[in-house]
Design brief:
This protein is an alpha/beta fold. It has two domains: about 180 residues, Rossmann fold; about 150 residues, Rossmann fold (3-Layer(aba) Sandwich), CATH 3.40.50. Helices cover about 35% and strands about 20% of the residues. It is built from twelve helices and 13 strands. α6 crosses α10 and α8 packs across α11.
Length: about 350
């Protein structure tokens, strides 16, 4: 019998913000003495269709080589990590508390919890990019305690007539912190996350940087990502593939400015990490950024589909050292209030 069982939709192969948050919860609860399990599932369909057979073989391969276990995140040795074929209650085992972490996992968690266990639903995004509006909203009505990581997600859940608690994402201060003062950084070094998903809107980021580069030839972009781009970057773009924590921390610290142009985010983690490391933030004006990106105080904002405005905001910071320093300082102070002690205490109160 586990105290907590977290259910994830898929393998932990690549660095994903939502998976990272779940792994952090699992580690910290384990260190407090709770028995914790993390269940991953590709939710395969059992049929003779070629696609199902291919997924089934993939499931077997991962079962053998244990590649469902994250290599990019160090889970506590006492955390039980499992790989099951279907998102069904019978595969989730016995637990005092089950935690859904994405809309695809909510039904199986509700069924597994039943009347004898507690069911929680950690809502990390409005996941209409992987399910229909109807499918996603329907999960908010299950017999689960809804927990949103951001105010805007909480408002969406409440608008459907369901209760929802708010526990903001927490940040690990031991991983991301300032090692180089902003005054010593090249103002033309800009950090950006590369992600192929359309909602991450990397095309706008790259176009904005090209505009700035025309006026500031010294600009260099420090780009990182868990996926390699399928096209060549300009020579002034340095790409870092799946950097380790220490390398990513130093990458952030080498940048004076961090740019993120996402069209939607549950909570933009990379923007927070950049602020922890002392960058000045230029971010798209979306709810998932406004949890910590406050116009003129902790960031400069721009419409997500306007590379021209993004470029203008970057140039403001390149040319104004005082503003750059003020945003960096206030942003760093704000994100460092999002502690894991606070998040875990709030989480445990709901169990």
């Amino acid at each position: 019998m586990f105290d907590f069982t977290f259910v994830l939709p898929g393998a932990g192969v690549e660095p994903v913000g939502g998976f990272k948050i779940v792994y952090e919860y699992a580690n910290r609860l384990s260190l407090l003495g709770y028995k914790v399990s993390v269940v991953h599932s590709p939710n395969i369909e059992f049929s003779l269709k070629p696609s199902s057979i291919k997924r089934g073989l993939g499931y077997i391969k991962r079962s053998i080589d244990k590649s469902y276990i994250p290599r990019w995140f160090e889970l506590h040795s006492e955390v039980d990590v499992r790989w099951v074929p279907k998102l069904q209650a019978k595969y989730l085992g016995n637990s005092k508390v089950f935690v859904a972490t994405a809309w695809q996992t909510a039904r199986s968690v509700a069924e597994a919890a039943g009347k004898d266990a507690k069911g929680l639903y950690l809502i990390q995004d409005y996941e209409t990019w992987s399910g229909s509006v109807q499918e996603v909203k329907a999960t908010y009505a299950f017999e689960l305690t809804n927990i949103a990581i951001s105010r805007w997600l909480q408002e969406i859940v409440i608008s459907t007539g369901n209760d929802c608690h708010y526990i903001p994402n927490a940040l690990e201060s031991k991983d991301f912190y300032i090692t180089q003062s902003l005054e010593d950084r090249n103002p033309c070094n800009i950090g950006v996350l590369f992600h192929p998903r359309e909602s991450k809107n990397f095309a706008t980021s790259l176009e904005a940087l090209k505009i700035v580069k025309q006026r500031h030839p010294m600009l260099r972009a420090k780009v990182f990502g868990a996926t390699r781009p399928e096209y060549a970057f300009p020579e002034w773009v340095d790409f870092h593939f799946r950097p380790a924590k220490a390398e990513l921390r130093e990458l952030y610290n080498s940048c004076a400015i961090f740019l993120t142009a996402s069209k939607t985010e549950g909570w933009g983690l990379t923007g927070c990490e950049a602020l922890q490391c002392g960058c000045a933030l230029v971010a798209s004006n979306i709810p998932g950024h406004r949890e910590y990106a406050i116009e003129g105080e902790t960031a400069l904002l721009f419409p997500a589909l306007s590379p021209q405005t993004a470029a203008s905001r970057i140039e403001e910071l390149i040319s104004d050292k005082i503003l750059r320093t003020e945003l960096s300082t206030k942003g760093n102070q704000l994100v460092n209030t999002f502690t894991w002690d606070r998040a875990i205490n709030s989480f445990l109160k709901l169990t």
